[in-house]
Amino acid sequence: MADNSELQTGDVAPEFTAFDSEGNSISLKELTAEGKYVILYFYPKDSTPGCTIQACDFRDSMETLKSNNVVVLGVSKDSEKSHQNFIKKQSLNFPLLLDEDLNIHNKYGVWKEKSMYGKTYMGTARSTFVIGPDGMLKFVNYKVKAKGHVETLLDELKWNE
To answer: What is the CB neighbour count within 10 angstroms for residue 146?
Structure first.
């Protein structure tokens, strides 16, 4: 069941620990304890046009992000194998977390009712959260447009200077 309540900038980020496509355990608490900013972005499906654009934009901005002490984590409900193929095909340089049980999706309120061609269904709302080293949400967007999102995010957070 989906939790449709939306988080706001200034809220405490919901804690999670999840495996990436290589079997590594990744904990939000550990990353923030290391003083990292975390960009947690949710996307609907590996290897689809919009999701590929967004992932490649994060990939291409990684030098700027790392210089600002930022870790990028992508999340979808795709399988480990799907994530591995997506990472390899697009040469992604950041982890994709496994969330097939929608645990993280539900904590962040991104599993939502959507509609297409007059039909409603449940799916991932393309969303981005920036979590500070203090564990607080610094940026929240539940209506991300894939194209140009990363550059807009960098500008908004003043990480593009």
So the answer is: 19
Query: To 5 degrees, how large is the angle CA 48–CA 31–CA 42?
Result: 20
Number of domains in the chain: 1
Residue 64 lies in a domain: yes
- Is residue 51 annotated as a catalytic residue, yes or no? yes
Neighbours of 11 (CB within 10 A): 13
Q: What is the CATH number of the domain that holds 23?
A: 3.40.30.10
Q: What is the pLDDT of residues 92-126, one digit of tens each?
A: 999 999 999 999 999 999 999 988 899 998 999 99
Residue pointed to by tokens 């610094």? 138
Spacing of C-alpha 128 from chain mean position: 6
Domain around 146: 17-156
Q: What is the pLDDT of residues 9-52, one digit of tens each?
A: 999 999 999 999 999 999 999 999 999 999 999 999 999 999 99
Evaluate whether residue 111 is within a structural domain: yes
Q: Are 26 and 73 in contact (CB under 8 A)?
A: yes
The DSSP call for residue 120 is E
Active-site option among 18, 51, 104, 110:
51
Domain-located, residue 7? no
Q: Is residue 1 part of a domain?
A: no
Q: Say what the pTM is.
A: 0.93
